[in-house]
Amino acid sequence: MALSGLDIYKLLPKTNCKECGFATCLAFAMQLAKKAVAIEKCPYLSLEAKANLEASSLPPIKLITIGAGEQKLEIGNESVLFRHEEKFHRPCGIGFIIEDSLTDSQIIDKLDKINSLTFERVGQKLEINLVAIRQINDGKRFSDAVKIISSKTSLGLVLMAGDLSGLKLALELTKGKNPLIYHATRENLSQVAQLAKEYKSPLVVYGQDLEKVAELTIELTSQGVTDLIIETANKPIADKIWDLTQIRRLALKKSNRALGYPALVIVEQDDPFEEIQEAATYISKYAGIVLIKGFESWQVLSLLTLRQNIYTDPQKPLQIEPKLYPIGSVNNKSPVLITTNFSLSYFTVLGEVEASKIPAYIMSVDTEGMSVLTAWAAEKFTPHKIAESINKFALAEVVTHKKLVIPGYVAMMSGELQDESGFEIIVGPKEAAGIPSFLKNL
Amino acid sequence: MALQLMTERWSGKISVVSIGATKEELGTRTHTIRIGGEESLPCLFQEAPIPNKPAIAFEIWDIAPSDWLDELNKVYGNVLNDPLKWAEKCVKEFKAQSLCIKMQGAHPDFGNRSEKEEAALVKELLKRVSVPLIILGCGDDTKDNLLLPACSEAAKGERCLIGSAVGDNYKTITASALADGHSLIAESPIDINIAKQLNILISDMGLPLERIVINPTIGALGYGLEYAYSIMERARLAALSGDKTVASPFVCFVGQETWRVKEAKTDHPEQGIIWETLTSTALIQAGADLLVMRHPKAVEKIDKYIEELFNHK
What we know:
In chain A, α5 (about 140-150) packs parallel to α6 and α10 runs parallel beside α11 (about 295-310). Chain A contains 17 helices and 17 strands. In chain A, β9 (about 205), α8 (about 210-220) and β10 (about 230) form a beta-alpha-beta unit. Chain A is about 40% helix and about 15% strand. Chain A has 3 domains: about 5-55, Orthogonal Bundle (3-methyladenine DNA Glycosylase II, Chain A, domain 3); about 65-310, Alpha-Beta Barrel (TIM Barrel); about 325-440, Rossmann fold, CATH 3.40.50. Chain B is α/β, with parallel strands linked by helices. Chain B has a single domain, classed as Alpha-Beta Barrel (TIM Barrel). Chain B has 10 helices and 10 strands. In chain B, the strands form 2 sheets. In chain B, strands 8-7-6-5-4-3-10-9 form an 8-stranded parallel β-sheet. A two-stranded antiparallel ribbon of chain B has the order 1-2. Chain B is globular, with a radius of gyration of 19 Å. The two termini of chain B are about 25 Å apart. The model of chain B has no long low-confidence stretch (mean pLDDT about 95). The interface between A and B is large, with 50 and 46 residues.
């Protein structure tokens, strides 16, 4: 739990010596609470108070980085159990498992397919994050497979090897790429911890249940290995949800540091539908990383969309810049359709206008990211507001026809909008799906 | 030291709604579907009892749908022209445990079938299939106020679920449900306060809260799913904390929302099916109790998923 300014003030010397650069200890405490200044600025802090402050300033779920460069994955730092309370901060990492028993050319084929899996929805790029290499054959084959994969992807790597010599070879090959080591167990704890330390790599800690995992993370942190990701054994879906829920609850509500790490889940499911359903379940219920095997584009698109939905900030709907967007080769006779600047509204209309193959303008009105009906009810999408946008975007100079198409759901504002804007109002379809046939008959 | 787990102690519980009356209950259904009754959040079996599994109903129409996608038309084929055969196919071939008939053809813009015709259809449907029935109006308030009482009476004593009651049109349908022994779907536009208010208005007319199912209005995956997801989570938390006025099971109309999105129209038949499947999956995790679906393969996958969820320690 983070301390308040007053809590911190109690731990300070209260001498107002000003050596920290602030007029009083209280002022310094307030800045500390905002994390705007470092604790070290106070030269007179007792060791005990310092340890106390440092512990309380740590986030309850540690931020872990996997990979390096632009495509590195950062997970952790979550602060709530339910997305409506604030938001889920760092989208769950999604990765694919490739086994080293495949031939080199099969591996390369898989990577080519994985590299082509990027999608765009409502103006956001949807991407996968990790490639995991799983050892099936000997350590030498494993490191050879890692070599191929690491040269062909800039995604973060997960090295899944039981053979420690193979693991060491692979770590040597991927130096500087910050791969995730999978995994430390009770049996191999000290050797794997040594590797994690030597290569400064994040490490997955595996235990049968939460209690065993917590024991191991305590041992590891006492050895100075602190970049951890936790995993419990494979179990029925509901039992896994229980584990993930307990990890999140205990870390946030009970400040349990031993479980204050992101959680990893591997979905071992051959049916392509059931695999995605299970993965989606864990994404909804607190997983930090989900590893799957299937990578058909229909599977991946649906899973990435689910993740986008769950990790959207509920207080801040996705918005686009309000402006007049020309779609296709428009001219001064092209129709003008009005919608809001809520991303989903705009991109749905955009998709249908594009599908119609009829060049048109879409005028996105600033509704602070609200959808058509919500914005209308909240008086953000009124005849007055729309008329303002018409002037702002100088619509009368762009098109010569003085006609506007409005969404069918706000047909009731036609008269008033006509008076306010001087444009002739045409009521469009209620649903965007009706736009192509509407435009063809316009 | 043993790890101390954190279990919530909830004071509230979701009400149990039964759909379908068997012979013993003076109806003609072969079984009854019970939904609701949760005393905890979805799947947290180790915290408190979750006595009933989410249920699935196949969506059928009284008329052949003109705008259903090829993937669905391919699956159902000719039976789309005959609601009775359509119903039988769902039950016999796809093992439907319940059916949801939408009286689209009664809508003034879709043929304006009379309430008499529709009531006769309900009567015939009850003869031809013996699973519990959900009956939906056409969505036109004026027409529904004629249509739903007629259908309700035609199914008297069968303990159907009928809908939908909305904020400015709930009185006629509530009175019918009350008179004929049915339960009611109360629909609110992704708004927990309106859901609460509507439940209060309906129960003030004498229909017990135990006979109301909330339709929170959902969006498909990628089309506003997250709004419904969070509204359902919030309502569930309020209900478990003791607010009886939102302690109703949820019905989610997944089929109608997913089979009109862009992704369902691609060349991969799996894309539409997974869209319906994954939307349902996520909503089950938000607390859905009854899913109204369209594609038999999606239903099969959700059915299996539910079985797996209930196979736990």
